[in-house]
Amino acid sequence: MNKLLFLLLVMMPVDKIIKDFYHHHQYILVAAHRADHEVYAENSLPAIRTAIDKGIDIIEIDVRETKDGVLVLMHDESIDKKTDGHGKVADMTYAELQSLHLKKEGVVTTERIPSFRDALELARGRIMIDIDFKADTRSAMVSTCKLVKEMGMEQQVLFFVYDYKDAALVRAIDPDLPVMPRVHNAAETMAVLKQGCYPILHADDACYTDSLMQVVRKANMRVWINALGDYDELGEQGFDSLLQKKQVNVIQTDKPEELLAYLRKKGLHR
């Protein structure tokens, strides 16, 4: 068999996404906030599956730890708004959480809170994952990193940290795990650049300037920004505004299908 044909046959869908992420900076990738929750409950397996089916590049998922040490997907500290139960994730066992159902915009669904392992299994080889780590303990961070490594998915994920200083904690656990630090101003941006070991940074809208982010791009790092809120609500007009930020490589949105179609129309996505 022709070697090129063989490689194309064995290449997984996520390989093309990873290649675009690291090597084709002219494209803008789409990240689905809390997976594709326009139809299904956020952070649910169907929301992940739908994002995969639509050809979205990245899903953002929120990871917490249960009382008995199981990693699960849940944005809030409390389950009150997102499920038909009450209490905090950290105060409940995985079995207790499995007796509950997720809500979609206040309406109870048939879906249950997924484990992080189940989410990784579903996404493996298919889509990149932004891990928004929301647990409070280092042991949970270690468990998260170890599970990703155990499943051989280091290059498929980004580990998001709210404080860039915490990025070193993740790298100390697994130096091969790609970390995405958040920056709020120019000083933090330059501090991250000085460390020189991250593939991407998450830039707050308030600190974004083309000149500053051009320095980031020259350091072979990518730039992630959010469309969440006003940009998303304005639709194409909001997306037009985002494209004025010339150094952006990844946009996180609550409307991934619409953003993907928009970028393809502009020739900014495959």
TrEMBL record:
Coiled coil: none annotated. One of its GO terms (cellular component) is plasma membrane. One of its GO terms (molecular function) is glycerophosphodiester phosphodiesterase activity. Residues 28-263 form the GP-PDE domain. Gene3D superfamilies: Phosphatidylinositol (PI) phosphodiesterase (3.20.20.190). GO terms for biological process: ethanolamine metabolic process; N-acylethanolamine metabolic process; phospholipid metabolic process. It comes from the Bacteria. This is GP-PDE domain-containing protein. The lineage of its organism: Bacteria, Pseudomonadati, Bacteroidota, Chitinophagia, Chitinophagales.
